[in-house]
Amino acid sequence: AGQRVCRGGTQQPCYKIVYFHDAWRRVSYEEADNACRADRGQLLSVETAAEQRLIEKFIQSLLASDGDFWIGLRRKKEEVDNSTECQNLYSWSDGSTSKFRNWYVDEPSCGSEICVVMYHQPSAPAGVGGPYMFQWNDDRCNMKN
What we know:
Layout: E1 3-7, E2 11-17, H1 29-38, H2 49-61, E3 69-75, H3 83-86, E4 90-92, E5 115-120, E6 133-139
Protein name: LAYN protein
Main location: membrane
Keywords: Lectin, Membrane, Signal, Transmembrane, Transmembrane helix
């Protein structure tokens, strides 16, 4: 399932947004990655601020409740303590080289969190960096999103 959205109707790129209201249906990073590949796609690579805004509009149109979205950004090394070094170790799963990032103010936190989600927590009280809406957060890859 999922909502397929293409720019200008059928032009490339096309996006398929999948959101599970039922938490028991949510999946890990690897499961999400495998599902995208099986559908002849890949997890989202956000290349520009304009593309970030476009994805935000798509997600808003779902009227989704709390539940973060996996994106195709992942850290190469498993454990890194130095957050300055850590930020440079993320790469897109499709091999693209965009340096655009939309981290939440205190992210990435590194450590054992190596896969990346786009926040979607409309009911959460705002934190230091404002509402937890559409910024990126490194998370444990086995989390269900």
